[in-house]
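Section 3.1: Structural characterization of target chains.
Under the original work plan, the team committed to producing a structural model for every single-chain target entering the pipeline before any wet-lab resources were allocated. The record below documents one such target. The sequence was received from the expression subgroup and is listed exactly as submitted; it comprises 335 residues.
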Amino acid sequence: MTGNVICFDLEGPLSPQDNAYEVMGLFDNGHKIFEVISRYDDLLTLEGRKNYEPGDTLALIVPFLIYHEISERDILRVSERARITDGSGFLISRLEQLGWVPYIISTSYQQHAYNVGEQIGIPPERIYCTFFPLDEFREEIGELGTSLIEDLERDILKKLYPNINDDNRIKERLDRFYYRDIVGTELEDVMRRVVVIGGQRKVDATLRIAKKVKTSLSELIVVGDSITDYKMLKEVKVEKGISIVFNGNKYAIPYSNVGLAATDIRFLLIIISAYMRGGRSTVMDTVKTWENSYDEFVKDPEKIPDDVIPEDLKNFLLTKVRDPEFFPPHFHYLE
């Protein structure tokens, strides 16, 4: 093994930007269309639709990106505006100093994933993301079938978006487009080639990483926050590894064994420090200590025992705890 391994989801833990949502915002009503497609993604995931994985939204929006002539440069331009989660660069640098090998496993298009990775110090060879040669796809598509897309956009904006909680209506209309209208077309072929790294494909990525570094899932730490991560979090948890949900939602929390709510991700080093001292059991003991003593620790960080926080993090917490905009780290034991 080349070192301890930690795998991060990107959108959420490392950067709050929903890149695909922002890219869709480059054309009129794109955000509204994305919200409906995203709801459809949730519905197909919860239904367990065959050959569908959470996060395949990034394939479903391809017809709209091509129709509105969005380019790879546009995706990168939007990515360049992305904020990096506070503490991300510090965390990655410190992890590598401690001998850890950080990876990114993300649904994000490669243009966004590689850009964020470069900013925080994770090279492309350690990023598993959605390969997306959009410019090549646009050149390949001959007759796009613009009337089908125009009709769908009109229905989304006039019928679906105003009734976004009408799940049956959303499924019926979008099923018609994706599973009937474009079947056998060049557009369907292009969409099938967009392999979004979400759901089971994130599990597959963790398995490839584990094989690459000659370890098992029980020795991995994974960090996620949403429905695209739940299978990865669940698999690592079942295998007795460490599954951390960072500022997570209801789709991810049940499948993790550690929860961390914070505005600064450097506090993840508390978990790393505990793991290096005594493995999984020490991590769980540390999390329970933080959960049970949260009020005391936040009131007076000086009283936090040295064995449950690295010294530099304690000093950082002391400088930030009185800041009204600062949200102290809140750990949750989720076993």
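Residues 269-292 form the longest helix (24 residues).
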